[in-house]
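Sample intake sheet
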Amino acid sequence: MGIGNIFKAFQPKDKVFFVLFEKTADTLVQMSKEFHEGLIDFDTNDESLLKKMSDFEHQLDDLTHEVFVQLGENFITPFDREDINHLAAGLDDIADYIFASSKYIFLYKTPEVKEFTELSLLIHKSCVELQSAIKNLNGFKNAAEVKESCIKINSYENIADDVLSQALVRLFETNDPINIIKVKDVLEYMEIVTDKAEDVANTIENILIKYA
């Protein structure tokens, strides 16, 4: 390897990783928006929403894979390799659970429940704040904005907990065992998405503490 190539190999790869993370966050925002809007006009006989979620999930799998490929190819990274791994895996988990939520809605032919759209809106808002946090994390120059987004994500997760609890109380009052099983599963999958978003926010805050 020539001296020029050696020097290039040891250059910081901020652009590579941040481009991938920002693209991942952008895709999550699109995915969560489509998910929320699809539940507003919900039709158990129309599987176009499920197909869209599957396509988004595959796109995000590819982006996550590319992050891991870059980790294997580059000596120097913008922050710890372990943190990059956690951030990539956490973002991928969000996509996986959005897709799982949509899948079970259609597999179970779940009846429309107002809490679905309440939770999907919180999921979308969380993804928007993750998009903002990751954008502002680039260069570690906007720490206050990153922290503000992380606080909002934590708040959305707390609200989602309350929505789930109240929904389960009403659900068990129906005394319909089959419907309870179906709706409970979907509600819990959707609430987990906000948990995963909070996990990513915590990872981002840890990165900020180390480098900002």
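Comment: DSSP finds seven helices and no strands in the chain. Confidence is low (pLDDT under 50) at residues 1-11.
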